[in-house]
């Protein structure tokens, strides 16, 4: 039996939407991917989010302008569960994105548990690998005011 990856992605995004019924999710058919859903900044969401399916079996999750992570293949249920946990964790404020900058360039970002005792990294994004000069700074993106 062949699994339909679009149906898998739609079911995962529907599961996320069910947990956050007050948030508006907009399906975007213009982008050259199999499925793209935008979740714009709105009451209860401080940062724009993109969700979707690309390359036929790759679930993706992006926050703001720098953090991007994919979970594949989506035919593996564990990857779908991680995708849903990453998105809902960020939307609930349980997880946050810590961006690391050199000058004005984001060079890496981590999706981490924002617990007080320890921070566990769930996903990592790396940007510019060439030598970037400038002051080192960090920025934390956390949706800490969501009332779900």
Can you tell me about this structure?
With 148 residues, this protein is an alpha+beta fold. It contains 2 helices and 9 strands; from the N terminus they run αβββββαββββ. It folds into 2 domains: 5-92; 96-141, no CATH class. Helices cover 21% and strands 36% of the residues. The chain has a 5-stranded antiparallel sheet with strand order 1-2-3-4-5, with helices on one face. A 4-stranded antiparallel sheet has the order 8-7-6-9. It is globular.
Number of strands: 9
Shape: globular
Work out the strand percent. 35-45%
Rounded radius of gyration (Å): 16 Å
Distance between the termini: 37 Å
Short description:
This protein is 21% helix and 36% strand. It is α+β, with helices and mostly antiparallel strands and 148 residues long.
Topology:
Blueprint: H1 5-19, E1 26-27, E2 35-39, E3 49-54, E4 58-63, E5 67-71, H2 77-92, E6 95-102, E7 105-113, E8 121-126, E9 136-141
Antiparallel strand pairs: 1-2, 2-3, 3-4, 4-5, 6-7, 6-9, 7-8
Helix pairs in contact: 1-2
Descriptive keywords:
5-stranded antiparallel beta sheet, globular, 2 domains, 148 residues, alpha+beta
